[in-house]
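Think of the structure tokens as a kind of shorthand, similar to the way a musician reads notation: each symbol stands for something richer, in this case the local conformation of the backbone. In the example below we present two proteins back to back. Begin with the first one, reading the sequence and then the tokens, and try to describe in your own words what changes along the chain.
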Amino acid sequence: MNDLRPVGELLRDWRQRRRLTQFDLAEMAQISTRHVSFIETGRSLPSRAMLLRLADRLEVPLRERNVLMTAAGLAPMYAERRLEDPALREAQAAVDLVLYGHEPHPALAVDRHWNLISHNRAVAPLLAGVAEHLLARPSNVLRVSLHPEGLAPRIVNLGEWRAHLLHRLRHLADSTGDAVLAELHAELAAYPCEDDYDESMLSPTAHVAVPFRVRSDFGELAFISTITVFGTPLDVTLSELAIESFFPADAATAQAMRAFGATLEPLPPSH
């Protein structure tokens, strides 16, 4: 998104991305439709409070709220630090607590572009055989999953899993306006897949929980996953951090993961 554009144009783009009319947004923000129109056309410059109210109603990501602030001639409001920053030490500890507390089942943390930040010890066995160039940082977990040299050859239900990931990624790219996610979707959609399974074939329940079935040294494993995000972050980095946790989808997988967990060394006190 071009941060040199007027703030009104940026707000209009977000409104249209959310499929809202000016009247809809005015109702949500409890202001007049005329005021919304004046802001979008540049006839009125929003105050910081008004800009924050509109951004909140439009569910604009924190990173893009900073862009809106800058476009309006205001100072960015949300800090952006690396997760290793001492100021985010408690957040890093919370991430580690979730990841390692989920063992013996896999869990991983990713950034806004699905690049791997960290993972627990149960993830490593699933990556056996994945090409080294896919695991080099920044390693993208969606690319690892669907690339022909990644997990794809070992995913039992590749067509269904691929359709699920592409649907989720397309929705995320559309809702955030992130060009990197759109490019990633185009790349992944171009990977070969013998299973002719389209996103439209997914059942309504499949959008909630699609099993991830993969062949491994422990036999065929089946997982369902959930995504966890920080509830009310005031830092851009934390707002874009997500933790994906995998749970056994059948008794055989649960038993295999318990057996794997029995081989793990106890974690040091820091974890």
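Once you have a description of the first chain, move to the second and do the same.
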Amino acid sequence: MSGRQTVQSRLGSLYREVAKFGAVGGAGVLVNLGVFNLVRHSTGLQTVRAGIIATAVSILFNYIGFRYFTYRDRDRSSRSKELGLFLGFSAVGLVIENGVLYVATYGFGWDSSLQSNIFKFAGIGVATLFRFWSYRTWVFKALPAREVAEQAESILASAEADTDSAPHSRTTQ
């Protein structure tokens, strides 16, 4: 593959990853804002507390989407480590996201329903940049090309061995 083809291939791969991340993230934003408004208006909790609950619910939703859709082809060898890293980086994102909401609500006194939703959304946007970088770099790491090739070869070898050792049926008349 030429250098230009390699660059085009990598850009295409990154584009697909960003699109899948965006699809899951977009659905997660809807979950986040929906839960935020539901909790805020039905329970009377303070704005930032409602934001934290909504973020926690969307973190769970997003993990499922990222693991089984966006990064389903990534290394799965250590799920407990992956989940721990995901939760750790998500906690940082939670602080970023709700920190923006906190500053708007308590720093500037912007606490109307519209203002809270605007700053909740802005916080999600800032935190998303951090989450995209951290998830792809540390949580859902790509398998090195050599390991992928070895896995493919072992799958093919075991498939060939299965077909070679399968009993051949003959019909006699």
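Compare your description with these statements about the second chain. The CA atoms of residues 163 and 169 lie 12 Å apart.
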